[in-house]
User: What shape does this take?
Amino acid sequence: MSTSMSPVGRLAELFTSQGAADYLGEPVSVAQHLLQAAALAVAAGAPDALVAAALLHDTGHLRGADPLADEPELSGRELMGGTDNDHGERGAAWLARWFPPAVTEPVRLHVAAKRYLCAAEPGYAGLLSPASVYTLSLQGGPMTAAEAAAFAAGPYAAGAVAVRRWDDAAKDPAAEVPGFAWYRPLLDGLLVAG
Assistant: This one.
């Protein structure tokens, strides 16, 4: 990936390269999953930053080949093989070079939101796909009551929960949604001066 490319151009390249891979035991590619999550956010009337968070929430699975990565990345394949790749934290840290916390914090917290919802909402865990149930076991399982209370009190908890719900619903192989190019102006508008 070119280091002179704009941040949004780099993301577009990730969507067409690594994003074309299948999505960790789900019936869609990573890019299809992310584009569906973003389309659900738009349909819900979410603010631009939360639409961007939905679009980019699994970027941590895609950026392993990035020459500006601070350290070697674990891929989604390793997550499915039993090693938590901490993709929310890693993706958010990478995106923070260009985007504000209103985008990066829901990305960082979307895995914690799954753990929170499993603890806070009876029946939520039963809605998860088999792949998501498996990854939950690697990501710490449902939160304790104290963890859930601390999570819910955080400033980005509601955004992270919204991204999580769109994440859960974004696995339809027949869904027709806008491509990455549709989101470029939105992403460009959210870039912070670096």
Q: What stands out?
A: The mean pLDDT is 86.
